[in-house]
């Protein structure tokens, strides 16, 4: 293998190994301006889109212990990698696809687990991490506030009854 190809292969391999996820997209038919805009949006979210030859991706996936992407490696493909939230990255790609009808999500992996395109789209529909935390806190807090209302209700009823009795006697 030539030195240029070897260094490119090592760069892709390093990017994949240092990423917590990988999303495979087909960018066929995208204009350079659209590809640049997608890269800009992904970079703002801490992810990176890299155009990779299918043969390089096959070799990198074999050497890195990634799931077998060979069935998906036709056409013009790129990988999206990063260490931020997978859901946020998937949401950016899905929203971009709804605007421009490109790129097409083909699949991916999270760690060593293979993800289908449908699974990635489901992850894109999840609310943000902060919203999920607030929903969980709300669920945890609801029983406590109901218990507090149940415990204070008899005392409040007693106070109202005594106030009513006091106002009737005067």
Could you say how many structural domains there are in total? 2
Which consecutive residue ranges, at least 5 long each, have pLDDT under 50? Answer: none
Q: For the record, give the distance between the C-alpha atoms at the N and C termini, rounded to a whole number.
A: 102 Å
CATH class descriptor of the largest domain: Alpha Beta
Biggest sheet record: 5 strands, antiparallel
Strand content: 15-25%
- Return the CATH topology of the largest domain: Alpha-Beta Plaits
Q: What's the rounded overall pLDDT mean?
A: 83
Structure class: alpha+beta
Strands ordered across the widest β-sheet: 2-3-1-4-5
Order of helices and strands: HEHEHEHEEHH
Q: How many β-strands, per DSSP?
A: 5
What share of the residues lie within helices? Answer: 55-70%
The shape, in one word, is: elongated
Radius of gyration: 27 Å
Gross CATH architecture of the largest domain: 2-Layer Sandwich
The CATH superfamily label of the largest domain reads Ribosomal protein L10, N-terminal RNA-binding domain
Number of helices, where a helix is a run of at least 4 consecutive DSSP H or I residues: 6
């Amino acid at each position: 293998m030539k030195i240029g190809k070897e260094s490119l292969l090592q760069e892709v391999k390093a990017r994949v190994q240092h990423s917590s996820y990988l999303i495979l997209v087909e960018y066929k038919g995208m204009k350079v301006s659209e590809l640049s805009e997608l890269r800009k949006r992904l970079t703002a979210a801490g992810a990176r889109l890299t155009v990779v030859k299918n043969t390089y991706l096959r070799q990198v996936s074999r050497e890195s212990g990634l799931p077998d992407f060979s069935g998906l490696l036709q056409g013009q493909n790129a990988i999206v990698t990063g260490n931020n939230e997978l859901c946020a990255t998937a949401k950016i790609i899905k929203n971009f696809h709804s605007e421009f009808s490109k790129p097409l999500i083909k699949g991916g992996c999270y760690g060593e687990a293979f993800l289908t395109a449908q699974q990635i789209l489901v992850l894109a529909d999840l609310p943000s991490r902060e919203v999920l935390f607030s929903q969980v806190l709300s669920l945890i807090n609801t029983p406590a506030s109901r218990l507090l209302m149940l415990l204070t209700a008899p005392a409040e009823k007693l106070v109202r009854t005594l106030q009513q009795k006091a106002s009737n006697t005067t």
